[in-house]
Amino acid sequence: MEFEKDNTFFTGRLKSMGFALRGAVKLLTTEHSVMVQAAIGVLVTAAGFYFDISATEWMFQTLAIGLVLSIEGLNTAVEKIADFVHPKFHEKIGFIKDIAAGAVFFAALTAMAIGAIIYVPKIL
Q1: Separation between Cα atoms, residue 82 and residue 111, nearest integer Å
Q2: What is the SS3 assignment for 54?
Q3: What's the chain's average pLDDT?
């Protein structure tokens, strides 16, 4: 099957959304790091309902969850491309993959800081 670009605005956007949804499902069902991050997102969402957090806190929490999952997805894409381009270990590929993982680390630290700002006062 050959790819043919859909030049109409509406159907093109629908197809793009379908590809995005398929990618999100692939991430959630095949990547363990994404599964863990998504499970943490579900837990803090439940905590948000339990502690009745404010609209502003919901906004920051939702942004943090989305940030981590998005960066985790980009990291996975970088790793898959790097493995495709150079399947065996290569120092430069390892360096690139480490940088992508570092971006996830920064996103996760940011999310943990946001979680601490929201929940530590409520728990104490």
Answers
A1: 27
A2: coil
A3: 93
Catalytic residue among 2, 57, 72, 91: 72
**Residue ranges of domains in the chain:** 32-123
Residue 2 carries which DSSP code?
A: -
**DSSP secondary structure, 7-23, as one string:** -SHHHHHHHHHHHHHHH
Identity at 112, one-letter amino acid code: M
Topology annotation, domain 32-123: Helix Hairpins (1.10.287)
The structure tokens listed for 37 are: 């991050």
Residue 106 token pair: 């920064």
- List pLDDT tens digits, range 18-31: 999 999 999 999 99
State yes or no: is 72 an active-site residue.
yes
